[in-house]
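Weekly modeling sync, notes
Attendees: S.R. (lead), two postdocs, one rotation student

Agenda item 3: backlog of single-chain predictions. S.R. asked that every request posted to the team notebook include the full sequence so nobody has to chase files. The rotation student volunteered to paste the first one in as an example of the format we agreed on. Action items at the bottom.

Example entry:
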Amino acid sequence: MSEADVNTERLVQDLKTVARDAEELMKATADMAGEKAAEVKSRLTSIAENAKTACQRLEEQASVHVENADKVIRSHPYESVGIAFGVGVLLGVLLGRK
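Predicted structure, as returned to the notebook:
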């Protein structure tokens, strides 16, 4: 898994957490009244919806990238193994040096 994939996965998890927390906060403040409370609830609703939408988009993009990587690896299996081996050796050398 590449660093970009890890970052994307972490971002998706963070967005899910934000959306869930915003929904919980809206439920917890449901009995509050006033103009300011209504404004805050409106903003939280908007933020939660935006986070959910962004999360869905990122998950779709990630699955497309995974499918593309799978196609490339299946069409060039020996080259893929060679590259993975080379990266492993390089990491081993770099991490082995102290």
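Discussion: group reviewed the output briefly. The longest helix spans residues 35-75.
Action items: rotation student to repeat for the remaining queue; S.R. to check formatting next week.
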